[in-house]
Design goal:
Pnp Oxidase, Chain A, seven-stranded antiparallel sheet, globular, 164 residues, mainly beta, 13% helix, three-stranded antiparallel sheet
Length: 164
Amino acid sequence: MSVFEPSSENTREFRNALGRFGTGVTIITTAHEGRPVGITVNSFTSVSLDPALVLWAPAKASLRFNTFESATHYAIHVLDQSQTELACQFAKDAEKFDSCDWHWNDQGVPLIDKAVARFECERVSSHDGGDHAIVVGRVLRAANFGGEPLMFFGGEFGRFQGAA
C-alpha cells in the first residue's frame, strides 16, 4: 500500500492509482475543416438524465485539443471488446477512418458504424480542469447497439466480467 499527496514529483504514482478505476473506452469524433477526426478517450461519464447531458475531458497537451474543445457537435462511441485495435489506432492518429465503416450525420459529424452505444452531442460548455478541459454536451441522439464493452484497467485493455 502506498499513501501519498499527489504532486508534480509523483504524477506516475498518481496515474497508477487512478488506473485502478476500470473504465469503458470511447472514440470521440468530430469534423475539422471538412475532414473527419477522432480521438480515443476513457474520461467519459453521464451528468444528467433530464436534460440528457454527458461530459468528457480532453487533455490540453493533445495536438487535437483545440479541434475537440471547440467543436460544436461531436459523437461519443462506446467501443466493443473487439475494437481494441481501433482504440489504439485513434489514440495515435486522428484520421484512422480508413480502419472502420462510418458515415456523416445531419450535423456533419462522422459516426462510426459499429459500437456498443453512441451519443451524438452538441457542446453546452467547456470548463478548466487543470491539464484537461471538461466538455459538457447535450445528447441530441443516442443509440444502444448491444455487445460487450471494451474496458481499460491498470493501463491495459480487457473485457468486463460480471460478479458471480
